[in-house]
Write a structure and sequence with these properties.
This protein is an alpha/beta fold and 361 residues long. It folds into two domains: 1-112 and 266-360, Isopropylmalate Dehydrogenase (3-Layer(aba) Sandwich), CATH 3.40.718.10; 119-260, 3-Layer(aba) Sandwich (Isopropylmalate Dehydrogenase), CATH 3.40.718. 39% of the residues lie in helices and 19% in strands. The protein contains twelve helices and twelve strands. It has helices spanning 18-36, 50-56, 64-68, 87-92, 95-101, 166-182, 200-212, 225-234, 246-259, 300-312, 316-330, 346-359, and strands at residues 6-14, 39-44, 73-78, 106-112, 130-136, 146-149, 157-160, 187-192, 219-224, 241-244, 267-271, 279-283. The strands form two sheets. The protein has a ten-stranded mixed beta sheet, with helices on both faces. It has a two-stranded antiparallel ribbon with strand order 6-7. Adenosine-5'-triphosphate (ATP) binds at residues 17, 80, 263-264, 285-288, 290-291, 297-298, 301, 339.
Length: 361
Amino acid sequence: MSRSRHYRIAVIPGDGIGKEVVPEGLRALEAVSKRFGCTFAFDQFAFASCDYFLEHGVMMPDDWKDQIGGHDAIFFGAVGWPESVPDHVSLWGSLIQFRREFDQYVNLRPVKLMPGVPSPLAGREPGDIDFYVVRENTEGEYSSIGGRIFPGTEREVVVQETVMTRVGVDRILKFAFELAQRREKKHLTSATKSNGIAITMPYWDERVEDMARAYPDVRWDKYHIDILTAHFVQHPDWFDVVVASNLFGDILSDLGPACAGTIGIAPAANINPERDFPSLFEPVHGSAPDIAGQGIANPVGQIWSAALMLDHLGERQAASAIVAAIETVLAQPRLRTRDLGGPLGTVDCGAAIAQALLEAR
Ligand code: ATP
Ligand code: MG
């Protein structure tokens, strides 16, 4: 197979600490390139940032889709500077546009307890927690269909519909089952609430059962969302791949990384699995105005996002190497950033991870 291993990456640092951690992500990718032979062209874009907004009055130029639509992936820092641009303007003018226009219907977040990162769950060791949350990103509970009748009166009625389409449900389930199939445990858990939400959730369950037939080697189960959140806290070691609708996935994809520790290290991906459009890789954290410009942000979330990007591009070995290098560095107290009680700043921590990548065998 002669697959090209040259990747064009649209790099969008955005705001605040995004501008500090993105270069550390690129440094890790350059180290990967030296070791694994894949090559990258990094095209930097200044739009999708509040600075761009203040200069141009919009978050992105009219032709933003032409500018980045042909790239293999988008490597994103963080967007938002609420002091000068309201969050709904910056978010809706950038990330939400990417998600919609590039049909990034999978939101993927790994939940993995790393060495040196204190978990709020007592007694958990690295290795105990290692799973993925797969969230449906385009339909479900987050539809804008509905409205108010007799607003402002005693008879007020408010309705909002959940929308599930067969295409929409099946494509997220397919992604989740395929991910489970690639993993060692081959275990998929589906979040439901068919005992309370009597129309859409039984349909979701039905589609899971149907999809499972195509993956006989994947063991699967389902839990109601209420007990599932309890299990995240009490038995995080049970999980391997957890798939959920938009609302349930939203909750689980914040709860999961919280169980595994600090916000500075968690990565995320918004994926279009068919690769009709570029997917987007970003840390879970935001622009962190309170620490921006000080050189102290933890770069691990951004670097780990680079690993998710490599995995999506088919560079699986390189992706695992980045995660391993992060583990190597976090295991050493003197190589951690301040949020983890260490002495290093953003650049030195990023350099340590790149070094670990080059030295690992
Ligand atoms: P969002 O942009 O999603 O609305 P937010 O702006 O409310 O999020 P963040 O920017 O993620 O929040 O910051 C939340 C807190 O976590 C802040 O106190 C910030 O300093 C801290 N934090 C976030 N990212 C990092 C990081 N990479 N390293 C160290 N601390 C961080
Ligand atoms: Mg913010």
